[in-house]
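Supplementary Text 2. Reproducibility record for the structural model of the 956-residue chain.

All settings were left at their defaults, and a single model was retained for analysis rather than an ensemble. We include the record here because the model underlies the residue-level annotations in Supplementary Table 4.
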Amino acid sequence: MQSRKKLTWALIAGLVFQGYGYAQEANPVATVSSSLNQSTVENIFDRDVNSSWKVSAADLSSSQWLMFTLTNGGDVDKLTITSKGLSKKEVENLFDIYITYDPMNLGAAVQYRVIEQDKKFVLSFTPKYGAHIRLDLKAGITKKPFELAEVDVSVPKPEEQQAEIVKNRDYMDPNLPTEERVKRLLAVMTPAEKIDLLKESWGIAGNKRLGIPAVMKVEALHGFSYGSGATIFPQSIGMGATWNQALIEQAAIAIGEETKSANAVQAWSPVLDVAQDARWGRVEETYGEDPILVAKIGGAWIKGYQSQGLLTTPKHFAVHGAPLGGRDSHDIGLSEREIREIHLVPFRDIFKKYKYESIMMSYNDYLGVPVAGSKEILQHVLRDEWGFDGFIVSDCGAIGNMMAKKHYTATDKLAAAKLALAAGIATNCGDTYNSPEVVQAVKDGKVNMKDLDFACSSLLRVTFRNGYFENHPSKPLDWNKIYPGWNSPAHQAIARQVARESIVLLENKDQILPIAKDTKTIAVLGPGADDLQPGDYSPKLQPGQLKSVLTGIKEAVGASTKILYEKGCQFFQTDSTRIEQAVAIAQNADIVVMVLGDQSTSESIKDQVKTSGENHDLATLELQGDQQRLLEAVVATGKPVILVLQAGRPYNLSYAKEHCAAIMVNWLPGQEGGPATADVLFGDYNPAGRLPVTFPQHVGQLPLYYNFKTSGRRYEYVDMEFYPLYKFGYGLSYTNFTYSNLYTQVQENGNIAVRAKITNTGKIAGDEVVQLYVTDMYASVKTRVMELKNFDRVHLQPGETKEVNFTLTPYEISLLNEHMDRVVEAGEFKIMVGGASPSFVAKDQIKNSLNYEDDSKGLATTVDYQQNFAAKFDLRVLNIEKDIQDNSCVAHVEVKNTGNLTDVNKIGLFKDGEHYEDRSFELEPQASKVLTFDIEAPAFKELQFVSKYKSVTYKN
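Retained model, structure tokens:
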């Protein structure tokens, strides 16, 4: 999400938060950063006119900038500048002022007027909502030096916040039912307070008059990412590569502990997108390309974080992981079948298990309608089908995107706000709900109050339910404080273990790894060798916090081993390349470790071109800058080269596969990534990570993922075979495993019991990631060639054998038939258990070819499944309740699943033959549910309730 997490690039200096954030502060700025003289920029907020931020004439030969991050977002209406050396005319022309909630999307500069008073300049403008202020200093306006001594920011608090505190606070009684408390609080809220509650200001700002507490949030994909000093864990793609649910749960518990220490209670995390295009910069934020892997690893993260009494906000709901051409948020126009088979799976499965109470919607569309205005996905699927009763957060700017800015489905902010409220979006990360025209429309009764009340109630319900009114757990963050427990030795150890377990060994020719610790000379080369990249959504880095691969190697070897280092080139730029020097060093070494890959790090680090992360997509998958040239030049020396790919996505490693002695991927490994990588390089840890994404031979193969569907013609290209370079689920070990005794049994309830034995036939202990795949051989619709259904990471001593057991339920082997009904069709299923996804021959009869090369890779068998499963829905009208006073009625319709499989359905209400409303639902076998339909005008002759296959009629 474009979630104002980019504030972390403004963490050079700042002020400590003051108070709870309700009162108007003279200068409500949390942090400030600049394009120059960063060591003194904090002087403009130190309340001392004798200290200043100085700008020389030479500095303004090009444009410069200042960026302020506000303690609390609000409607900024003026800046007061105390300066030396500037005239009023120069001030009128020097600045472009941007007020924004998202520093990556500044919007248009505000038009300001200047008044000079008391040796200060007051720059005033029409109030504009934002959480960041950027001042661009334009080149050529003045040719003389000047100083900025102080800058005061005016953020008037809303009128409602200044009003008298409400006396009747019966909703504060914790003994009342939650819904009653919500109802009573809504009754005393003004319309303006309701829409103000929905603005986003580092979370939910709260309301002092009403006693509504603030609910502060953070981004926490791989650690608490605001401020500086929290533990930086491996990026999400590395977590996915561990295939270890218990370990990721442990990491999320640690992140939760650090969140609580900083007095936040909500994480806009994790990302549950299924990544289907390696060019997409946000692959690094995901757990991989398979919905089950994402569901299990993402579920472990949510389970761990929520165990600390915190809120998670998984994102981006939904259909965000398959962007057209790999370009972020470019919709590919997926069908409902594809969406339900892949992209909804992690969100649904995790909600069913762990009941997250908040969710972030995406920039994408759902069946052609922007998600920000889609009742189908946000109401019918999320709430009606799954039973979600929490609150929906907008991705930053997503509501505004419905205007001409992006989607052209709303003519102005009021139209966009109405669509979003009707879809049930509560927290608006953006400037739509709190724009003056929308707030005024709310006050004037021009916004549907029922929609507004629904959005507010969804948020208040969660706040009441979690006891925040009573406990007040949230406090504004002190951006300059390292909180107790941050980066503790225990958390460092977890970060190192996640990094170790994430490392995937792709090549190990002639068992060159592990490297002997008494090797005489090791050359460590490459832009990533001494520049560990932690990934996007990292906080401002503490000095020495990131331990590089070079550092890890130096710590691992003895005094007799000589370590030679040369960067060789930059990650992206092609200037300052020192390939000749790198080659010379390689020629003097016994073995070469090269660390190449992505540049993806904290936004607090300036003047770097990121090659991965949010808004950093690639057109190719070639190593950027001069990295490929460096690799080839060093390989040409004839020295054995160990390539460490430090990256957030797959790259084209075709050359490396042929020419390197070994290849490993350590992803974006977090602060302990260097020592963890050295652990694997020198054999102190036996690698067992598995690829969570497919590595293609060439970018032209994309999109390329393992669970594809069969082709109507051919698979290969004229100039390239279809196969990937490294397949999903693949990874090597320093030991060997064999599989035996694959056994399956179809049970009476339709479950399939699967078990297999795995033996460590090598000489050292190690982990094997046992993966269960299923293929539906023949079906009424085209199914995927294979699908991951479960996995288990097991540890085996040399010679040890363990049995792994899985259970496949009917739902797990079901499909969506031609009518989009979920069914299990009797027939043949292929069951495959192994250490990677099965191999295949990409020609006719591709499913028949699925298998493992030998029992060291895995085993396959078939099951003759003779049971059928499907839902069967009955419906009946229970009653129609009429309310004479407000001329309305409520219809109650019971639906029951008398079948033997969970499925979804929809009931459409037709009033005198005209379509009136739809309600969706999902029911397990033998379960029932009562659906309610609110009918505003009861003057009707007939109501007809129509499901896919049945209907019932009520005559008035």
